[in-house]
Description:
The complex is a heterotrimer of chains A (127), B (106) and C (105).
Chain A: E1 14-18, H1 27-40, E2 45-49, H2 71-75, E3 85-89, H3 90-95, E4 107-109, H4 111-120, E5 123-126
Parallel strand pairs in A: 1-2, 1-5, 2-3, 3-4
Chain B: E1 2-6, H1 15-22, E2 28-31, H2 50-58, E3 62-66, H3 67-72, E4 85-87, H4 89-98, E5 101-105
Parallel strand pairs in B: 1-2, 1-5, 2-3, 3-4
Chain C: H1 21-30, H2 37-53, H3 59-70, H4 77-83, H5 88-95
Helix pairs in contact in C: 1-5, 2-3
Amino acid sequence: MDKPAIEKPEDRAILLVFRHAPYGNALAREGLEAALACGAMGATTNVLYINEGVWQLVEPQDSHAIDCKNQAAMASALPLYGVEAIWIDEDSLKQRNLTSTDINAGKIIDRTQVQALLATSQAILSF
Amino acid sequence: MLLHTVNKSAFNSGTLGDCLRVVAENDAVLLFENGVYGALDNSHGKFSHREHIQKLSASGTRFYILQADCEARGLDASALLPIFTMINDADFVTLAVEASAIQSWY
Amino acid sequence: MDTVLTLDSDGHLAHLSDWSEQAAEQLAASENILLSDAHWEIIYVLKEFHQRFALSPPMRPLVRYVAQQLGKEKGRSIYLMQLFPPSPARVASKIAGLPRPENCL
């Protein structure tokens, strides 16, 4: 009997694009939960922080008084969930006067690399 | 080919600009819902993306706009940048199928 | 003497602040588990995970985190399975007073 063809995980790389600031609405939180779920299920997962999404990376965050889960704390669990490919758009940082010292994780990439990441992803979920 | 969709008006959102900044030459851009206002030919100043769109178009990026959303908002084709191709829902589906992935800017 | 614990629909503590070692023993008993030092070690690692990441870990991240904190011998699903059958992530987080893990497989 023929073995069923099994797709390699890397053939199905999912890209989650985080474009919104944390806390103002549920998007950032839901995006993060989606990324954690993808990772926990063993899907090859890339995360891109771009535009307002880069605010999610600023530390320290203390969301206690607004009664929300700490997004930065949750995001720092991504590698434990198997999501190690975390990318940050350089221009979005520059526009907001943020530098690598303001953010908590990830690798900063330029516009060309962002384009390549988008072009090579099998599915993109935008939050 | 990546399909980028934009559904926010260029007059109160930076979404179209954010999209255009990372669009590649093989990609397609579709404006729909309030995104269709971004295709107006006669907008000015910071709201105008005319030059950026023209430059991308010259390098191969395709630009589409959803006809039903234009009609609903009273936007006549003559008011839009001629670079935009009017498409219907079926064309939208075809584009989506043709694309390697869809990035929705909202 | 058991105290009455307020539980959610999944049988997890409704309020993390209600957790105590006695509550843990009670929750463990409801899963037919008698807690040993080996159990407590994992329970405290789980509580630390929740404190640090604001999350209840499903299996894979739990295994990784236990490996980081307590070493590779303990960071194995078979080890956790023996301590907290039949579903270590769910059972151990229940005993540790955490909400049920989201994305629990």
